[in-house]
Amino acid sequence: MSINPIVLSIPIYFILIVIEWVVDASQKKKRYQLGDVIANIGCGITEQATAILSKVVLIAIYTYIYTHFKLWEVPHTWYWAVVLFIAVDFFYYWAHRKSHEINLFWVGHVVHHQSEDYNLSVALRQGTFQKFFTAPFFWPLAILGFDPIWFLLASAFVTLYQFWIHTQYIDKMGWFEYVFNTPSHHRVHHGRDEKYLDKNHAGTFIIWDRIFGTFKEEEETPNFGVTTQLQTFNPINATLIPFKELGKKIQSVSGFSNKLKAVFYGPGWNPMTKELSPEITHKYTVQYTSYLIVYISILFLEIIAFSAALLFNSKSLSNPEILSFTGVLLFTMWSVGNLADNKSYAMWIEIGRVLVIVFFWFIFQIGKYNDWEIWGLSAIFVSLFLLALIIPKKEFSKG
Questions:
Q1: Distance between CA atoms of 67 and 192, rounded to whole angstroms?
Q2: Residue 296 to residues 339, 342, 347: CA-CA distances in angstroms?
């Protein structure tokens, strides 16, 4: 698919996020905080950047099933396109639901639920590994004869629909809520209160939850996030910590049967109590000085620009180039995540990052400047300049 609707929608996403953030600041609702926005968008960038190559494999599997095992070939008509969209949404419901009910799948999906705020930026917070766990749920569509390109487009539009429901600025919507997923329904889904857990898994049509018994009406504004709070704004750590926690859980139980249950039962399972009660504590926040806010903000804008360039130009890049640029992007994301957590060692990692990028551009690309190199050099000098402003001010915490 040469045109990815999700990638094309990125500028619109950011415009709407900025508008909501400005409105939030003017009304002093405090539904946005800088570190959380960095984590949310950072997780989304990480997912999209790593998907450039990984989706090739998943698409190839779907195409192979379609080519060799399809029962018939579905015609390319508008009414079959509608059927496909509904079918994709149906299978999305089950993939999403099982991502909450099976611990192995949850480690890929939990990233989306880690934010303790609820705003449009949370829609971009996606798990890098989730696609590997959910892809098999859609393979029946290949067997039924739905073309891979059509499937990708329908999946993209199911995903696009869900952006606008990540807001607290839209209240209940009357009759619309009986059939369609809405901000009110999805706020329930992101709630960590016990009565809201594992409810409203729908993508577009809330009727799936009504039919299969997982629907819950919003009664009061939920406490958002997960029952075991993350305590970091670092998007790379946010992606990897769930796997570390799953490993700890497997080690903590005895017997092969219990270890299998730790992997394939629900996230709340343990051999003592079956269910874990939600543990609500204070929201994770970090205080920044003005210089650090400026540096983090500009560095993160560099990341957004770099990732956009990577996504929009990926077709013209070789696999080694994609891997190289993705590696630089992830390293930068990890560094800005440490800054967002205000870690005592973040300054030294950021200095190391700048030096690595300087080495990368000047040693390996000298004399071969193109748009990528020019942009990279500009980013380096901006980073160095801002870093020079920050270090004398001792902006980093000592803890």
A1: 43
A2: 7, 10, 12
Please provide the DSSP assignment of 200-267 as one string. Answer: ---SSBTHHHHHHT------SPPPBS-SS------HHHHHHHHHHHHHHHHHHS-SHHHHHHHHHS-T
Return the residue matching tokens 């099982």. 98
Give, in degrees to the nearest 5, the angle at Cα 197 between 196 and 203. Answer: 85
- pLDDT per residue over 122-174, tens digit each? 999 999 999 999 999 999 999 999 999 999 999 999 999 999 999 999 999 99
Beta-carbon contacts of 18 under 8 Å, excluding residues fewer than 6 positions away, are none
Domains of the chain by residue range: 5-212, 290-393
| Distance of alpha carbon 193 from alpha carbon 220, whole angstroms | 10
Residue 396 has pLDDT above 60, yes or no: no
Where do we find the tokens 């299978």? 91
The CA-atom distances, in angstroms, between 44 and each of 128, 165, 304 are 8, 17, 10
- Length of the chain as a residue count: 399
Dist. CA 74–CA 88, nearest whole Å: 14
DSSP-derived letter for residue 111 is G
The three-point CA angle 226-229-234 to 5° equals: 110
Q: Give pLDDT tens digits for 277-290.
A: 455 567 899 988 88
